[in-house]
């Protein structure tokens, strides 16, 4: 009888598939960034500014300009915002660079890549919604990967479309300039997402 019950229990367990465990959403380590990480970001930005002055590059783009603060968004909106911003920054920084600048990018790129993966873990924690028309690969993740119970606010949706449009229309050089010159704004957004309700 005992053997029969054990066999029955095993077959019942197999009959009802379990959901795959979801990735955890842990952003607490971004609440306070290490001074060494901030120093590496600052050195990269300063070196880029020197290179940009020497190259005489002209960019009038205002990709990261906005009239609202990250703290005005809901916590889920903040995660989607930073995931999209980091997607653009990473794509811009992965283009070839001058030797001196390439060396200074190494540590910031490693940090930003990890932050992007952690944010993707939060965004991908729930099923995907249908893709929006016209969304391109890359930033499309932030536009389409949402929990069914949460839809981005109109404010955020407009911002994500702005980033997506810039990604398609701006030159690689101007995307790189915007990404590096506004890097600390993106890091501030990351910190706000990590602080959750404490960000005000």
UniProtKB/TrEMBL annotation:
Keyword terms of this UniProt record: Antiviral defense, Cytokine, Secreted, Signal
Biased composition, class Low complexity, residue ranges: 131-145
UniProt cross-references to Gene3D superfamilies, sorted A to Z: Interferon lambda (1.20.1250.60)
Signal sequence region: 1-15
Pfam families: IL28A
GO MF terms held by the record: cytokine activity
GO annotation (BP), single: innate immune response
Region (Disordered): 127-154
Compartment list: Secreted
Cellular component aspect of the GO annotation: extracellular space
Assigned protein family: Belongs to the lambda interferon family.
Protein name per Swiss-Prot or TrEMBL: IFNL3 protein
Lineage of the species this protein comes from: Eukaryota, Metazoa, Chordata, Craniata, Vertebrata
Gene this protein is translated from: Ifnl3
């Amino acid at each position: 009888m005992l053997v029969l019950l054990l066999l029955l229990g095993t077959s019942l367990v197999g009959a009802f598939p379990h959901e795959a465990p979801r990735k955890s959403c842990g952003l607490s380590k971004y609440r306070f960034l290490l001074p060494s990480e901030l120093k590496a970001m600052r050195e990269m930005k300063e070196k880029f500014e020197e290179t940009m002055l020497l190259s005489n590059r002209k960019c009038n783009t205002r990709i990261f300009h906005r009239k609202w603060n990250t703290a005005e968004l809901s916590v889920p909106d903040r995660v989607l915002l930073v995931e999209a911003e980091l997607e653009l920054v990473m794509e811009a920084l992965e283009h070839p660079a001058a030797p001196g600048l390439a060396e200074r990018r190494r540590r910031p790129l490693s940090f930003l890549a990890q932050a992007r993966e952690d944010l993707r873990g939060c965004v991908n924690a729930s099923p995907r919604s249908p893709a929006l028309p016209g969304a391109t690969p890359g930033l499309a993740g932030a536009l389409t990967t949402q929990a069914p119970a949460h839809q981005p606010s109109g404010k955020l949706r407009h911002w994500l479309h702005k980033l997506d449009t810039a990604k398609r229309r701006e030159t690689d050089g101007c995307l790189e300039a915007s990404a590096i010159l506004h890097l600390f704004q993106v890091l501030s957004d990351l910190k706000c997402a990590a602080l959750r309700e404490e960000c005000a």
